[in-house]
Amino acid sequence: MATWGYEGELGAANWGKLCPEYAIADEGKAQSPIDLPGEAKETTAESASSDPTAEQAAKAEPAKLELKSGKASIINNGLTVMVNAKGASEFKVQGRVYELAQFHFHSPAEHTFGGQRHELELHLVHFAKDGQGPGPAAAVVGIHYKLGETADPFLKRVFEHVPSLTKNEETPLAEPIAFDDIDIAGEFFEYDGSLTTPPCSEGIHWCVMKKVLTLSKEQLEVFRTAIPVDNYRPVQPLNGRSIAVIQC
Ligand code: SG5
Ligand code: ZN
Q: Are the C-beta atoms of residues 123 and 90 closer than 8 Å to each other?
């Protein structure tokens, strides 16, 4: 596996050429992130029947994110801040149960909403509990944050550890990680994509929450001081994939 990054020779434009395992970054037809519909494209009840995305939404079954709590450790690996929290959340979607492995952050966000890029995106990375089987083996839940007046309570608990982290040193958290203060609500965009970092493997089930949460300027600064590089991959072509809207 080759080293990769977000700038220059090691940047996203070159990932596909860094080593054979990363070729899918250039050759894949179902890559992530993508541009998701923004506010302007919101469907009204009137237009919904003629809108293929809305029709699909009606058929899709609801997804369920079960946020428990569990032991966790945190690491700044130079490319992101990641919290390993195996089993701390379960995600049920399309008849399959996915278990949380880790979550991490990108700033600015990777998915865009109608071309608009928010300040921060949280990725909750889940793997199918039953190992192999039909459908994608991994599911990532994306939560967007934009700048606002108030600090986000979940980010407050995670980011308070960030300034004291030594790069590449995994630090156990004294308190179990809990998710009850993430305001998970409403509709999610759902589509089939890839990891947004090398090896950019496809077969990843993406669910990105429509509602955008807020974080304070100070909170964003804490993250950007730890990870100064813009750690996002540019949006990838949709190539005819459909984006469903599901309720969570
Ligand atoms: C994260 O993004 C982590 C990966 C994760 C990818 O930023 O990458 C880094 O931290 C860079 C060193 O997590 C790991 O490497 C932990 C095993 O990859 C995975 O979660 C796949 C196992 C990609 O995740 S994403 O598509 O949600 N952005
Ligand atoms: Zn990510």
A: no
